[in-house]
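#help-structures

NK: newbie question. if I give both the sequence and a SMILES, will the prediction place the ligand too? trying with NAP
OV: yes, paste both and it writes out the complex. here, I ran yours:
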Amino acid sequence: MKICVIGLGKIGTIIARKLASGGHEVVASTLHPERHRDVEREGIKLYYSNREAARAADVVILAVKPKDVTKVLKEIRSEVEDKLVISIAAAVPLKIMEKVCPKSRIVRAMPNITALVNEAVTAISPGGKATKEDIELACSIFNLMGEAVVVDEEAMDTVTGFVGSGPAYAFMLIDALADAGVKVGLPKDMALKMAARTVLGSARMILENKGHPSELKDWVVTPGGVTIMGLYELEKRSIRAALMEAVDAAVNKAREITSKISEEVDL
Ligand SMILES: NC(=O)c1ccc[n+]([C@@H]2O[C@H](COP(=O)([O-])OP(=O)(O)OC[C@H]3O[C@@H](n4cnc5c(N)ncnc54)[C@H](OP(=O)(O)O)[C@@H]3O)[C@@H](O)[C@H]2O)c1
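OV: that's the protein plus ligand as C-alpha cells.
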C-alpha cells in the first residue's frame, strides 16, 4: 500500500512519519522540499508536484489548511479517480470534496497532535462512495497513531473543537498546574514533570477502567483533609463550567467556519 501525504505541516509530517515507521511506503508532496530533508532521510519520497505524488500512490491523505483543500483537490482530481482520499482538514464538508472529486472515495478524519506519541483519538467519517474496506483502511491508518472511532459527519465540528483542539486545553491545564507548583516553591521543570505525570497517570487509570473519575477522585480525598481544600477552591471557580464554555466556543467556531466554507467555496 503506497500512501501519499499532501501538506507536510505540523500534523502531515507526523502522519507521514508514523506511516513510514509502521511499514507503509510513503510519498509526500511539498511546496518547500528544502524544509523537509529530514523526512526524506526517513525514506519518504518527496515530490514537488501534488499531481505526481497523488499519481504514485494508492491512497492520498490531504493535510493542507482548510482554505487550500478544494484548490489541491482540483489539482489532483484526475489522479485520484477511483482512489481513497482521506482529508484531515477541519471544517471542509464531504459534500464539497465529493463535488470536486466525484469519482473518488472520500473519508474525513479528525486526529490530534498527540498522534506524535501514538495517543491520538481520531474521528473517522466516511463519504457516500467510501466502502467498508475504505473505512477499515482509514481506521487502520489512524490506529497506528492511537485509536480511530467512526462517527457521523454531523459530529465532525464537535469533534474538531473537542478532540482536535483538546491537546491545547490539556497543555494549558498542565502548565497551569505546574505554575501552581512553582507558586508553592517547586522549580518549574520539576513541577512540569510532576504535573504531566500526574495527569498522565490519572488518564491511564480511567482508560484502564480502574473506576469512574468521580469515584477515583473520592479515593484521593480524606474527610477534612488536604485534597478537599484544593477541590473546594476549584469548585468555587467553576472549573467545569469554564471547560464547558471553552468547548462550546471552539465547536461554535468550527461550525461557523464550516458554514463559511460551504457558502464561499467556488466549485
Ligand atoms: N495541527 C493540528 O493539531 C491539527 C489537528 C487535526 C487536524 N488538523 C488539520 O490538518 C490540516 C493541516 O494543519 P497543520 O496544523 O498541520 O497546518 P500547517 O502546519 O500550516 O500545514 C499545512 C501545510 O500545507 C502545505 N501546503 C500549503 N499549500 C499547499 C499546496 N498547494 N500543496 C501542497 N502542500 C501545501 C504547507 O507545507 P509545505 O509547503 O511545507 O509542504 C503547510 O506546511 C488543517 O486542515 C487542519 O485543520 C490539524
